[in-house]
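Lab notebook, bench 4. The sequencing result for the construct came back, and we need a structural model before the next group meeting so we can plan mutations. Quick request posted to the team channel:

Model the 3D structure of this chain.
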Amino acid sequence: MRFSESEGIELRIYTMHDGRMDAILERFSKHTLGIFERLEMKVTDLWIDQTGIPKLYYVMEYKDMEEGQQQWDTFRNDPEWNEVKRKSEESGPILEKMDVIYMNRADFFKG
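Done. Here's the predicted structure in token form:
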């Protein structure tokens, strides 16, 4: 079975500390997605856990893994992002855990 390496797909799963789900949703809706757009980082989908577990799932797309790593380096050093993060965490950290999974779409899947 052969997998395509023509694009980089990254699944991010964020698990929030108790009581911090609203904080991550506000940060994403008011700031993070706009910063991603400004930095030309492509989010292809975003989900909230249906069962009430404080988790956020989203998919990023890059031409390859190297481009993704470069974009995240730029994002982490962005002054606007650092100020948004600082302000949003004044009452405590938001993320308890972050899982990052790099994937290639299977050539045979056309969904």
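DSSP finds three helices and four strands in the chain.
Will bring this to the meeting.
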